[in-house]
Amino acid sequence: MKTLRDAYAGGRFGLSFELFPPKSPAGEAALFHHVGRLVEFEPSFITCTYGAGGSTQQKTLEIVAKVRKDFDLPVATHLTCVGLTADQLRDYLRQAIEAGVLSVVALRGDPPKGETAFTKTAGGFGYANELVAMIRGEFAEMGIAVAGYPEKHLEAPDLATDLANLKRKIDAGADAVITQLFYHNEDFFRFRDACDAAGITTPIVPGLLPVTNFAQIQRITALCGAKLPQPFIDKLSAAGDDDDAQFRAGVEFATEQTQQLIESGVAGIHYYVLNKSEAASEVLRAVTLPA
Ligand SMILES: NC(=O)C1=CN([C@@H]2O[C@H](COP(=O)(O)OP(=O)(O)OC[C@H]3O[C@@H](n4cnc5c(N)ncnc54)[C@H](O)[C@@H]3O)[C@@H](O)[C@H]2O)C=CC1
Ligand SMILES: Nc1nc(=O)c2c([nH]1)NC[C@@H]1CN(c3ccc(C(=O)N[C@@H](CCC(=O)O)C(=O)O)cc3)CN21
Predict the structure, then answer these.
(1) One biological process GO term for this chain (predicted)?
(2) pTM (2 decimals)?
(3) pLDDT tens digits, 68-116
(4) Which residues in 233-253 are b (16+ Cβ under 10 Å) and which e?
């Protein structure tokens, strides 16, 4: 397997994990420890996010290059349009290929810290579909995933507009859609049906974030707009400051969510593991993955 395109080829189930660039040497050591654990589940590929404004771009590349080399796994670098010109994006892609990083999660990107709106860099791109078109045109062999929003992107006026924009990313040459995290499978099923109706035929891969801590997931969902089901909120808040009870509630929820998605025939699952392995490992031991 060379790129993330192959992860889902021929009816294979594509399991993937997403990391973020660690901020300290201790964080980096912990990350590689946890990746060592996750590799036991034989993922198809591992990705690493890319900080706003390209602040982490060298770290992102370093992490994925090392995961590829140490674990002999295909990897994808996230790449955003924030703060970079098209030529700087091209330079980054050349470096990635040189390091054996042959897949990209192509995103517009969040506004940099302290800013509330995305602003297009002069000589850069305003939307992910433009980035996808450049990659497909000039780095044709790379695997490309794009983001999909079962609950719509926060900035999109409605689901239909957001879907039309997803279609632009697919038409520009994306190989797969990885969704934003969500906790209502019905939202995913509705989104998948809408993709179908729009003529999107690439794999639509659910992105799941197993909750391990109530305060942390409240921060994350506030940023991305995902809704937690009320019974799950109740369970997490009933756990109070019992960290283990919060973890158990999160693993139980993610296990049921995963099992139902597998039974519905998804092409793969992408876990936002947040540089940890315990929760995803428990979930993956509890479910039955397709062959
Ligand atoms: N793991 C990660 O790093 C993830 C990050 N994200 C973040 O989500 C945000 C959005 O990224 P993308 O979905 O890649 O951006 P995008 O460029 O596809 O979409 C951004 C917004 O613009 C709209 N839009 C897209 N194309 C358009 C066009 N041609 N004309 C008019 N409107 C258009 C979309 O509906 C959406 O509201 C970023 O902040 C990204 O970093 C999202 C998912 C995962
Ligand atoms: N809009 C958006 N932007 C993203 O960057 C993003 C999404 N959505 N959706 C899915 C994942 C989730 N992502 C996340 C979520 C949480 C952390 C996080 O907890 N970061 C800690 C790091 C602390 C540390 O270094 O230990 C933080 O405090 O920022 C990181 C990436 C990145 N992704």
Answers:
(1) tetrahydrofolate interconversion
(2) 0.96
(3) 999 999 999 999 999 999 999 999 999 999 999 999 999 999 998 889 9
(4) eebbeebeeeeeebbbbbbbb
Judged by its nearest atom, the ligand closest to the C-alpha of residue 272 is: 2
* Ligand 1 contacts CB of residue 156 (under 6 A): yes
Structural domains of the chain in order of their starting residue, each with its CATH number: 4-286 (3.20.20.220)
d(CA 133, CA 121): 17
Q: Is the CB of 181 under 6 A from ligand 1?
A: no
Instruction: State which ligand 2 atom lies nearest to the alpha carbon of 207.
Output: 10
pLDDT digits (tens, 9 = 90+) for 30-77: 999 999 999 999 999 999 999 866 668 899 999 999 999 999 999 999
- Residue of the nearest CA to atom 17 in ligand 1? 127
C-alpha–C-alpha distance, residues 226 and 162, integer Å: 15
Is residue 18 among the annotated active site residues? yes
CB of 155 sitting under 6 A from ligand 1? yes
